[in-house]
Amino acid sequence: MSRSNTSPNASKTRSHQSDSMTPLYEQIYRIVRRIPAGRVLSYGDVAALCSSSVSARTVGWAMARAPEGVPWHRVVNRKGRLSIGKRSVILQELQKNLLQAEGVRFIAPDQVDMDRHRWNPTEAGSGSR
């Protein structure tokens, strides 16, 4: 199965990916797909946009299993840090490179400028600045 290099899941098998298709994860993925290039949300922000009670940790698990086409790299922790680095320095570097390619600025080597890049889905025309 061919996968793009933008998936944190590139080495997972098809059987592991079936976990990512639960109704709750699908809701999370729909929200994450709406985040414009150059913008980010925290795991907690995504959880708050879900219709059911969802924890930030659940969003993190969903991002770890994100299928191709879900811009997982646009979800960071509440402080703007790339917490995937706890799991893999290589994936952290990939996430940083993908965000920088979209124009996202960093205030520390692993920390996004949340004041500048946090997406507000309720603003009209809330795309990239």
Describe the structure.
The protein has 129 residues and is mainly α. The protein has helices spanning 14-17, 23-34, 43-49, 56-64, 89-101, 114-117; strands at 41-42, 75-76, 106-108, 111-112. A two-stranded parallel sheet has the order 1-2. A hairpin with a 2-residue loop joins strand 3 (106-108) and strand 4 (111-112). Mean pLDDT is 86; it is low at 1-5 and 10-17.
Radius of gyration: 14 Å
Strand content: 5-15%
Mean pLDDT level: 86
Query: What is the CATH homologous superfamily assignment?
Result: Winged helix-like DNA-binding domain superfamily/Winged helix DNA-binding domain
Structural class: mainly alpha
Task: Please give the number of β-strands.
Answer: 4
Order of helices and strands: HHEHHEHEEH
CATH topology: Arc Repressor Mutant, subunit A
Spatial strand sequence of the major β-sheet:
1-2
Could you name the ranges where pLDDT drops below 50 across 5 or more consecutive residues?
1-5, 10-17
Number of domains: 1
Range of helix content: 25-40%
The first-level CATH class is given as Mainly Alpha
> How many strands, what sense, and barrel or not for the largest sheet?
2 strands, parallel
Q: What is the CATH-assigned architecture? A: Orthogonal Bundle
In short:
The chain has 129 residues and is mainly alpha-helical. It is 38% helix and 7% strand. It starts with 13 loop residues before the first helix and ends in a 12-residue tail after the last helix.
List the helices and strands and how they pair.
Layout: H1 14-17, H2 23-34, E1 41-42, H3 43-49, H4 56-64, E2 75-76, H5 89-101, E3 106-108, E4 111-112, H6 114-117
Parallel strand pairs: 1-2
Antiparallel strand pairs: 3-4
